[in-house]
Specification:
This protein has 489 residues and is of the alpha+beta class. Helix content is 30%, strand content 23%. It contains 15 helices and 17 strands. The chain starts with 30 loop residues before the first strand and ends with a strand.
């Protein structure tokens, strides 16, 4: 560096010279340095030789003051297009937007940008890089995150933002988006989030969305988001045993999906034939044998989605007695009850007396019941013991009354506390058919129990998630010891 010499008595020089490399868009003649300020002349320059506007350059000594942090400064040069050296055209016309950035900053945050902007093919890049598959708002938010670390996405655009983050390998932003989506799954967005997670190979988010959908499918099928479900996902969920949704509700949801799919495929009119075509094998995942004969006849058959032979075979299955179903042809439809996580209970005792009632261990007791909808029994409950930590040996059978058919049996040793129900659970839920009287035969060896002195003969139970699912129990008391039945729809 060279300076002008002066003696102690001389006045300070007004100007001095600095030797350093000037920005490419300035010539030495355009820079004039004084002791108190740096001023820049923009005369003789043009828009092709510089990126900053005159106002930006003239304000070069001022804009930093309200931007104390490095991220503040980076945010400023991004928002105000200062010193940018790369341009992007983001989105599809007519909504595409031009955005500017800085190669170095992008490459620091992304291996994809590094390869794009500094790799072997970087010199072949056009003046404006076209990115049609990314939403402009999402790309802008990604740039903001890269420059400042700020994450201000909403649940409405988090999927688009995560797509951009995954495409350009901005891993911290991908994690932020995934966390936001996992925290705000609802019936109106779960299908979209699931399918975005599948597309982007976000396994944890996919598992969370899948679990939410299974637990809330009754609400999901009522929303328009359900209609965007892919065929593969539709088949996956219709095949799940854990759905707590009435089969009639699932049937009409599948019809709405098929109507929408016809539109997606360019079918002019969604007829029963065209709906059947787009449903393909998904129709066989609907468990028509779980629907009552009345609902099937009045609600399903008129839709004409099933062939005459299919409808006839289902009606035969629904109307013949349980012990004669084996004589029917094999159904092409699943008749297994869906094993939901929601356990419901029918109570047949209004209250227990303070009196105790002894069991005679060598005597078989029995009570009977009947339901009007298909259910799966989880457990039977019997009156509570009179002492704490009582032990019981239980032998129990479920029979079809009036026949020798035994559909389930169990032998257990149980420990039960005072005033709690003796709960006899099955290893697997026991399938119960509608309009069949079942006889519960049981022996209990153990202490005396309290006695149910008031009973309920008819007990309706309604599902939480589906208005079409209500089962009515008819309790036929003989020994009056069966006080509750826990079951799954």
């Amino acid at each position: 560096m060279s300076t002008t010499s002066s003696s102690p008595g001389d006045p300070p020089p007004e100007e001095f010279e600095l030797s350093f490399k000037l920005p490419q868009f300035l010539s030495p003649e355009q820079a004039h340095f004084s002791r108190n300020a740096i001023s820049v002349s923009t005369e003789g320059t043009n828009s092709s030789s510089r990126n900053a506007s005159p106002s930006h350059v003239n304000a070069i000594s001022n804009w930093r003051e309200p931007c104390p942090l490095p991220t503040d400064k980076l945010g400023y040069i991004l928002d105000n297009q200062v010193w940018h050296d790369v341009k992007f055209l983001i989105g599809e016309p007519p909504n595409a937007e031009i955005m500017t950035a800085h190669k170095l900053i992008l490459a620091m945050s992304s291996t994809v940008f590094e390869a794009m902007l500094f790799g072997p093919l970087s010199n072949a890049q056009e003046e404006v890089i076209n990115i049609p598959d990314v939403d402009p708002t999402a790309f802008s938010q990604m740039l903001k995150f890269i420059y400042t670390g700020n994450f201000d996405a909403s649940i409405q655009n988090a999927v688009d933002l995560m797509y951009a983050a995954k495409k350009y390998d901005v891993q911290p932003l991908t994690i932020k988006c995934s966390e936001l989506l996992r925290s705000d799954l609802t019936a109106i967005n779960a299908v979209t989030i699931l399918q975005a997670a599948q597309l982007l190979d976000e396994k944890e988010l996919e598992r969370k969305a899948e679990s939410f959908l299974i637990s809330n499918f009754g609400k999901v099928i009522d929303d328009e988001d359900f209609l965007t479900m892919t065929y593969a996902n539709l088949c996956f969920f219709l095949g799940k045993d854990e759905l707590d949704v009435g089969e009639l509700d699932l049937f009409f949801a599948a019809l709405r999906w098929a109507e929408t799919e016809c539109t997606r495929q360019g079918v002019v009119e969604a007829t029963p034939d065209s709906q059947r075509v787009v449903l393909r094998d998904a129709i066989f995942l609907l468990r028509f044998p779980l629907i009552s004969a009345e609902d099937f006849s009045l609600a399903v058959v008129p839709q004409k989605i099933l062939t005459s032979d299919e409808a006839l075979s289902i009606l035969q299955y629904l109307t013949v007695s349980h012990d004669k179903k084996s004589q029917l042809s094999t159904l092409p439809f699943n008749s297994r009850a869906r094993n939901t996580n929601n356990v419901y209970t029918a109570h047949f005792a209004v209250r227990l007396t303070d009196l105790v009632y002894p069991y005679v261990s060598h005597i078989s007791y029995f009570d009977s019941f009947e339901v009007d909808q298909s259910i799966s029994i989880v457990s039977f409950g019997f009156p509570a013991p009179d002492i704490d930590d009582a032990a019981y040996d239980v032998a129990l059978q479920v029979q079809v009354q009036g026949s020798s058919i035994i559909i389930a049996q169990t032998n257990q040793s149980l420990a039960v506390k005072r005033r709690s129900t003796i709960c006899v659970k099955f290893e697997k839920p026991v399938r119960i058919e509608p309009n069949v009287i079942y006889k519960v035969v049981y022996k209990l060896k153990g202490p005396d129990t309290f006695y149910a002195d008031q009973r309920i003969e008819n007990y309706p139970v309604k599902s939480k998630n589906s208005k079409s699912k209500t089962v009515n129990f008819r309790y036929i008391a003989y020994s009056c010891r069966l006080v509750e039945i826990a079951f799954l729809f």
